[in-house]
Amino acid sequence: MTTICDLPEDVLVELLSLLPAQDLIRTCRLVCTQWRYVVDLTTLWKRKCQREGFYIQNLDRSVSDWKIFYMLCSLKRNLIKNPSAEENFQHWKLDNNDGDKWKIEDLPGTHGKDMPDPKVHKYFVTSYGPCFKSQLITLQKEGYWNQLMDEKRPEIVVKDWYAARFDCGCRYELTVRLLSEDYIVLEEFHPEPVVIEQWNDATWREISHTFQNYPAGVRYIWFQHGGQDTQFWAGWYGIRVTNSSITIGPLTL
């Protein structure tokens, strides 16, 4: 009697590539020696990348492990929750909430401009006292297992957007830390604060940073941004922030 194990290798690759990655690794790999061999084949994972739109011809030489490449592509998304104020302040911890406190406004806002991204409709705005808010991302909860982070150290890309009102000066700050299991800072991105003068162009600007070749042991990412106005006007004349993101490699997509 012919069984599925009697199928030619290329047919088995085609069939198994239709299955979810977790089933392949946790179940199919354990069926028999032949299946383990096929599940570990580069061609199977390359086929999965092709099926799901992750494959680009000129990547062939730059990808050393197609299984890991597939996993990273399928996991890739914005790890910051509620980045553009669509859910009020949900998922954010308000570390400093001084002056007239954080507020949410609709774009473009008074004396403001629209964002380059038409999908963004709201922003968070600071007041005349320090306003900072943060999120702590637990990598294992997001699907990034310890061995992956320690051995492959995929690129971690941080982006944030900020703008001022035309009629008021303000200050913007960003801090992003890669933390160990015990919350020890392994690497940090903390550029000089941006000070914007009164009568500015109110344009939205992007700040970005890519963590590469960071130490092993990263288990959390801590993201904090905010600031205040520099003229101490009652109300919400401080820095505006929205569309924050943290994504984990590969950079090719």
Automatic annotation (TrEMBL):
Domain FBA: 69-250
Domain of life the protein comes from: Eukaryota
Keyword list, A-Z: Ubl conjugation pathway
The F-box domain, residue ranges: 1-48
Listed GO CC annotations: cytoplasm; SCF ubiquitin ligase complex
Keyword Heme carried by entry: no
Protein's UniProt name: FBX6 protein
InterPro entries: F-box-assoc_dom (IPR007397), F-box-like_dom_sf (IPR036047), F-box_dom (IPR001810), F-box_only (IPR039752), Galactose-bd-like_sf (IPR008979)
UniProt key word Cell membrane: no
PROSITE patterns membership: FBA, FBOX
Source organism per UniProt: Spizaetus tyrannus (black hawk-eagle)
Gene of this entry: Fbxo6
Lineage: Eukaryota, Metazoa, Chordata, Craniata, Vertebrata
